[in-house]
Design goal:
Layout (H helix, E strand, L loop, with lengths): L2 H11 L6 H9 L21 E2 L5 E2 L11 H8 L2 E4 L5 E8 L2 E8 L4 E6 L5 E10 L5 E10 L5 H16 L5 H16 L4 H15 L4 E7 L8 E7 L6 E7 L9 E7 L5 E9 L2 H9 L4 E3 L5
Parallel strand pairs: 2-6, 3-7, 9-13, 11-14
Antiparallel strand pairs: 1-8, 4-5, 5-6, 7-8, 9-10, 11-12, 12-13
Length: 299
């Protein structure tokens, strides 16, 4: 559990209005933090359910001026969608500390999000506003990013897999209806095939409570370019520990052997260890009597 989770837990315990400082810290936790160099891809997808207490909450101190770049705004329109869900919003391009940022403000809620626009990475941003089962206004920022070294499939699987890990816990009927509406609206409002298809397939997985394994790994530690996306539907597998063999989305890269835990309740599947596939490792698993589920396309 990290510090951001502790802050959120602290705010949720309060029965009175949270302080402006807590509001600020909660909302700051939604700002994308791209590293690109960690062993696991940290915060490629960022999603936090933010409770909008009374009072203005802002992600960062936004620049009040800022030049609006028409060409840039048109480009971002295909890579950003805001599910307003009853709250009017305004999207602006601003300059802050010499950088270009996109700012989205939910006007009635007094909530703003800001994220930097990078030339090194193409990022899809999806903002969802929902009313949860307790009547609270919750905000989620889901984002997926790819560089020139990544394949188009990486974006698709980041959206379908990593987004799923952030929304799967919302199983209340009303919550789910709102999120599904937001996903499908977003799919209609982009002409990027990987984004559109990722959102539509994500909606299907979510609507049908599929049990999904998804992992994004950096290729560099393994001598491979870009990020490696792994995605498997394990709905039909029994609960408990399982060993699976999976191909990355980019078939040119090496398969991996994952040890996973399939929980009876959770819809997302966690891994405890993995290794690069080899015939020797595979033979040792079979000889040990362990059950191995092989999802490779070419066996």
């Amino acid at each position: 559990m990290n510090g951001e989770d502790d802050i959120i837990r602290e705010a949720l315990k309060l029965e009175i209005n949270a302080s402006d400082e807590i509001n600020r810290k909660i909302l700051q936790s939604a700002e994308p933090k791209r590293t690109g160099y960690g062993f696991l891809r940290i915060a490629v997808t960022v999603a936090v359910c933010l409770i909008a207490f009374m009072g203005t909450a802002t992600v960062v101190n936004a620049a009040t001026g800022g030049k609006l770049f028409k060409a840039l705004r048109e480009k971002l329109a295909r890579w950003t969608y805001v599910f307003e869900n009853g709250s009017k919003t305004v999207t602006e391009i601003v300059e802050k500390d010499g950088e270009t940022w996109e700012r989205v403000t939910f006007i009635q809620d007094d909530v703003s999000f800001m994220h930097p626009i990078s030339e090194k990475e193409t990022v899809y941003e999806l903002y969802l506003r929902i009313i949860d089962r307790y009547g609270r206004r919750c905000f989620m920022l889901l984002n997926a990013g790819v560089t020139d070294e990544d394949t188009p499939e990486t974006m698709y699987y980041e959206i379908r897999g990593e987004f799923y890990s952030q929304i799967a816990e919302y199983q209340d009927v009303d919550e789910k209806t709102q999120i599904l509406k937001g996903l499908r609206e977003a799919a209609k409002n982009t002409d990027v095939a990987e984004v559109k298809n990722g959102l539509l397939d994500l909606a299907t997985d979510y609507e049908n409570n599929r049990r999904i394994f998804s992992m994004i790994l950096p290729g560099r530690p393994f001598g491979e370019k870009g990020y490696l996306a792994f995605f498997e539907d394990l709905t039909e597998l029994p609960t408990g520990e399982a060993i699976i063999i999976a191909d990355p989305a980019d078939d040119r890269q090496k398969s991996r052997i994952f040890t996973v835990w399939i929980d009876e309740v959770r819809l997302t599947v966690n891994t405890s260890s993995f290794e690069i596939f080899s015939e020797e490792a595979y033979r040792e698993l079979i000889e040990s009597g362990k059950t191995v589920y092989d999802f490779r396309k070419a066996k």
